[in-house]
User: What shape does this take?
Amino acid sequence: MSAVIDTHDHSHDEHHGPAKGFTRWLLTTNHKDIGSMYLIFSFAMFLLGGSMAMVIRAELFQPGLQIVEPAFFNQMTTMHGLIMVFGAVMPAFVGLANWMIPMMVGAPDMALPRMNNWSFWLLPAAFLILVSTLFMEGGGPNFGWTFYAPLSTTYGPPSTTFFIFAIHIMGISSIMGAINVIATIMNLRAPGMTLMKMPLFVWTWLITAFLLIAVMPVLAGVVTMMLMDINFGTSFFDAAGGGDPVLFQHVFWFFGHPEVYIMILPAFGAVSEIIPAFSRKPLFGYASMVYAVAAIALLSFVVWAHHMFTVGLPIAGQLFFMYCTMLIAVPTGVKVFNWVATMFRGALSFEAPMLFAVAFIILFTIGGFSGLMLAIAPADFQYHDTYFVVAHFHYVLVPGAIFGIFASAYFWLPKWTGTMYDETLAKTHFWMSFIGMNLAFFPMHFLGLAGMPRRIPDYALQFADFNMISSVGAFMFGATQLLFLYIVVKCIRGGGEKAPAKPWDGAEGLEWTLPSPAPYHTFATPPEVK
Amino acid sequence: MRVQLSRAGSLMAGLFLVPQSALAAWELNMTPGVTDVSKDIYSLHMIIFWICVAIGVVVFGVMFWSIIAHRKSKGYKPANFHEHTWVEVLWTVIPFGILVAMAVPATGTLLDIYDTKDADIDIQVTGYQWKWQYSYLDKEFSFFSNLATSKEEIYNRLDKNENYLLEVDNPLVIPVDTKVRFMITSKDVIHSWWVPDLGVKKDAIPGFINESWARVEEPGIYRGQCTELCGKDHGFMPVVVKAVPKDEYEEWAAKKVAAAEKERRLTSKDWSLEELMERGEGVYNTACASCHQADGSGAPPAFPALKDSTVATENMDQHLDIVVNGVSGTAMQAFGEQLSEVDLAAVITYERNAWGNDTGEKVTPKQILDYKNAQ
Ligand SMILES: [Cu+2]
Assistant: This one.
């Protein structure tokens, strides 16, 4: 790095701008470039995973087998889940973290920029391997994104070893990303930015990063045990060899439950930035928001077996996990109440980020309600592995994680690109997504309660009507996302009003003290926080 | 109370899109079922549902009030409060109290579900890819239960019947007013045995036996499905339970016992080579000839010839293994569970002696039984 301090205009100084051509992206260590790559990659995966969902919904449009065979259908449900979780949602939040955390804490870049580059570039490699399994003999993973043994070991397709390798690479990428986030937040905060002055997005990401470091190795462990069972003759999960198939589920969900919070906590943080901005009123209960997130994160380690109420746990275990799971409703409730109290007696306006954020609160709360119902172990015997569960987790993931990402994207796009996005189109995007998503997922509650199991390619006749509505909603939601692509591309290419440094009058935070678009290097001299 | 709740529940849900008259076809809610347990589960479900509705009304009420009244476009000036200790304490404590109140009945029902003691009948339920086996442990007979819906219906070449995908060849038959204990396990991957009307869902896990129970009051046919992804045909392994009056059950069971007894006599009987050959020819022609041809010439390379094949003339162990366990990844299925010991012995003996294979070796049903038990 040159020693020139960037106080003057140096647009002619090649040394400080991005490199030209492809090497800019391949070799970059700039948090903004890496953030953009994460976001673009995540959106590409969102479209890929989404098109698989379209295949699923097309097959389920009517009873009977029309479009795909059951064996391929299972590969679609599996890949849809894996790609959305590991390819779309997680990288999107890492992209947001890359862009925003340094700007929010007043740091010049992420603490470990070279590792940052490496953790991004591992992802396309991992997904290339994962997606290529679809073209291998015997097909890709077909055992669900939860890949329960022994279906995924003794009975898995030959490509399973590649799947395991891909998971390992993704895990390494996530762990490195998490280390980077922690190092940045711990070491590079501007003078005066104490922990309890950090924006909530930074707080939630800090906690998320600890969750990632805690559980990604567990995921790596469980897939390694699978690898051994498949290729090296061990019997971790093979009852015939003295192993235990239920062990798989314990280890998987010890990772899997914190994982669902990994996908939602950063969205909590983003929404906690956006709601006050458009309510023109400070966030209600900042401290209790921080404690609530911490409580949720801690509790997430002791509830994993609520995914396993039907495996035949001993009654004491069953009760323990039921009580702990119900307990999570308390801090989650606190968060929702705080958001509503923030809006209460504010001066609200409803630009696209706010629309997505408000929809987030409403729909995530509905997902929370069904979660509370699922926590009741006896009732879970009827809900478990039905479409009720599918409805539940799509309500927390689509209007939860994904609406959180959309809200963030619209909120910060002016800062990233220097151009205001097209508000009318963005509102259209919102309403189409909102309607499509509810049409797709609300009827799934009814389907599940009426007895339709999940992960089936064909169903009994009484489920026909709601499935058709659900498919129509899904197609609508899917198609609408192309509009989002158009809005963002238009914005990047400068088609729209020029954005001021602070386009939202109620917004707070260091990022809004920077010009729009944010220069390639920011906060080379740390700002003073009072 | 319960009925009212359920009616109100479907009404609430019905506001979403559905005309009242169509409610029958548009099933919205969980079934209350036909056992005490399933009814308890149903009322837990409705209580927690209404708790959620109540909380939702309050929270969304305040929110929509703000959305409508506190708008910048109406010139509303924002307040500036951002904490309030008492409110924050209250909305932590009150939900906690509600949860405790909810946990009490839930715990009671759970204890009841786990009480599998003092059952009158034990039935072992075994999951296979992709069918169920029911073994009546007190009566010593068992049978398989397969999907009865035809491929024609599944592939839309025929109209679908009313019980499409929820019909089986041999339903599980249980007596009413009897505590039936299910011992649930699996022979391959994990399945899950679910009958909504009985309020029973338990995973079938290889190497484990899970227990569950039901006492059905009303005779009737209750349908469910496998609910744990178990491979390609996971969607095609329904569960059908037929609850019948006690005397009808005894009559049915007696017939099954007699049939099983006959089968056992055949197995233990001393079979001569000729008898086995004769029976084997029949089995071969119905179960094997479609691929391997009546004269054993097969249709290479897809279906190997058995005439002069080393498997059928020399290697006995491999022969047993292929027929009993199949060759995975090929059209050669595992016949071990589909044919009886007698038929397996007969068809293997036939293959080793027909078409000039002439090994003179015979395989007895007893040998097959030992072979299977050794696996
Ligand atoms: Cu199954």
About this structure: DSSP finds eleven helices and ten strands in chain B. Chain B touches chain A through 97 residues (CB under 8 Å). Confidence is low (pLDDT under 50) at residues 1-24 of chain B.
